[in-house]
Amino acid sequence: MTSTRIENLAAAYAAAKRGLEKIKDQEKLQSKETARIESDLFDALEDEGLSGVTIPDLGKFRLNDLAWAKIENREQAMEWAEQQRPELLTLNHQQLSVIVRAAIKGEGEIPPGVTFTASRKIGWTKA
């Protein structure tokens, strides 16, 4: 048999956990909606040929279009580095990411054995 105190604490704990789960579910939904709107804003700025915009009372919104190199075939990437960019023989991910970003803009090619993960975000400086 449990005491009233334990039952009350268990009920309070269960209620708190349910409340937290509800908040987390709402956060997931809000995150998805925010990501969708962010993508729409990113596309709209790109469509208008803008890299950013300042909205009175809201702040500055600017494009932040980045990509990070991801080595999928280390052997191929090392072979390419030996021939094309020997300074990368350590396969520095920062330097590879610079090469990938340039390739995405049409300045060169993505090295063999390397893919990338893209991030399309809006940077916002609040007013």
What is the structure about, briefly put?
By secondary structure, the protein is α+β, with helices and mostly antiparallel strands.
Tell me what you see in this structure.
- The protein is α+β, with helices and mostly antiparallel strands and 127 residues long.
- The protein has two domains: 1-50; 51-127, no CATH class.
- It contains three helices and three strands; from the N terminus they run H-E-E-H-H-E.
- The model has no long low-confidence stretch (mean pLDDT 90).
What characteristics describe this protein?
single chain; 127 residues; alpha+beta; 2 domains; 3-stranded antiparallel β-sheet; 3 helices; 24% strand; flat
Instruction: Determine Rg (CA atoms, Å).
Output: 24 Å
Structural class: alpha+beta
Q: Calculate the mean pLDDT score and round it.
A: 90
Neighbour order of strands in the largest sheet: 1-2-3
Provide the helix percentage: 40-55%
Give the overall shape.
Answer: flat
Major beta-sheet overview: 3 strands, antiparallel
Query: Could you name the ranges where pLDDT drops below 50 across 5 or more consecutive residues?
Result: none
Termini separation comes to: 59 Å
**How big a fraction of the residues is strand?**
15-25%
SS field, number of helical segments: 3
Layout of helices and strands, plus pairs?
Blueprint: H1 4-47, E1 52-55, E2 59-71, H2 74-84, H3 93-104, E3 114-126
Antiparallel strand pairs: 1-2, 2-3
